[in-house]
Amino acid sequence: MPKQYAPRSSAKSRTFAPRSKPKRGERPDWTPPEHRPTGERKPRATGERRSRSLGEQPARPAHGSRPERGARAPEQRAPYAAPAPVVHERLAAEAIAPDAVAGMAFSELGLGANLVRELAALGAAEPFPIQAATIPQVLAGRDVLGRGRTGSGKTIAFGAPVVERLLQLHRQANPGGAKGRSMGRSPRALILAPTRELAQQIDRTVQRLARSVGLFTIAIVGGVPYQKQLTGLRRGVDIVIGTPGRIQDLVDQGELDLSAIAVTVLDEADHMCDLGFLEPVQEILRATPAGAQRLLFSATLDRAVESLVAEFLSDPSVHEVEGEDQASSTIAHKVWLIDASAKRDVVRELAAGVQRSIVFSRTRAFAEDLATGLEAAGVAAASLHGDLNQAKRNRSLAALARGEVRALVATDVAARGIHVDDVDLVIQADMPDDHKAYLHRSGRTGRAGAQGTVITVISPSRRRRMEELLRTAGIEAEWEDRATTRPRSRSLEERGEPRRPREQDRSPRPPAAPRPHMSDEEYAEFRAWKAARAEASVEPAEQTGPSAS
Fold it and tell me: Is the pTM of the predicted complex or chain greater than 0.85?
């Protein structure tokens, strides 16, 4: 039996009645037309546009009285005030002449005796121009923007004064206080770098400077276990050096306290403003005290860093070296035009001719392919790219530094700040994306006044793009066309065939192919003519074809 449903109770039933609509005169908001406010209607002038608005509208001027296009500037609601350009495409900076620092000592810049001795042990007997320009400003507590070409000593330019600045602040806060670390001490300085390798390299330099005066550093980078880094933070450190990703992770976990940071350094500041870096860098800087000192250093400082400068720097001191272009004068730049199929052979030939080289590729797969090809050709090589864990990346760099391998094939992960002594040649197997990448790649050679060579191998079709890139970077390169000629068909002489004289008439045109309307006799005559022509000699037959009859 089908299920029976009880009828809805009368309490819940609804009744619908037609809604009574009030008449027009009965509506409370209705006003008769004779009592509505009206304004005087003026006749429209000639050319005046009809308006639906109740307010007064100015008459539209006649067509002949209108001003010509461009004769009158458009009206603006408020005058536009352009922001003061803090950072320009080519830095409007306070320049220091290299001759002005000749014979100058680090002690004259305000550094202590321990730091001066440690710098001498590192091989820095005299300051480079960018160091002489920025160290006094950092010690004075000012925010600094520093641009120096790759290999000009930017690490010491901010590392040494940061250590000395922390000593000054410690003496001011604790006159006569005891030295040494205290458990859980919050860091006082923060140095950010875009890559793990660069952060670890900065730590190796700054660590020696800091320990010479009783301070401690720690490297906070990804790709390594957390526990060792957490143990070092809990023991207490003075300077934290790391990458934005791992530092932000520890800040979010509450393991890293940035509330006591007095000095923050951004190395490779232009790369920090790239997509993917800018947001974590901004969050990290906002976690530091608002009045903290900020230092930005890079080989290329342009409009990309203007957002960081506007938000976090106060009256920065901008410095670069007078007459020093972005390209190092100790580097010879060359561009080879080659066939795309010969790229691997050319790279192997170049790498085999020098003692130590770095090869840059665009993709990780191509880097592995080139490294494998170099090994097969008898050139000891190692690869360095993002697919490798940090331990393997460190081993590859160490192998190149110790001379265990002659070639390091890397992606752009190694193009920022990595310093390996005595790199003779940089080979760009793939053209870089922009002029900044070119400058940072080429900066792996010719460092600290040494001589170096950069060779970029491209196909002829990429020449125009390469010329634009070099023009933007301000580099004059030596071009060499090594591409083979394009394949072409061989001539009659090359094939050993005689050439027909021009005055000789061409052979007669054969008759049209048989059609369905041809008779059997006509088709047989056509076949006979075709066979006779095939058996004829070079001289064409006098016969012109079968008869039409």
Answer: no
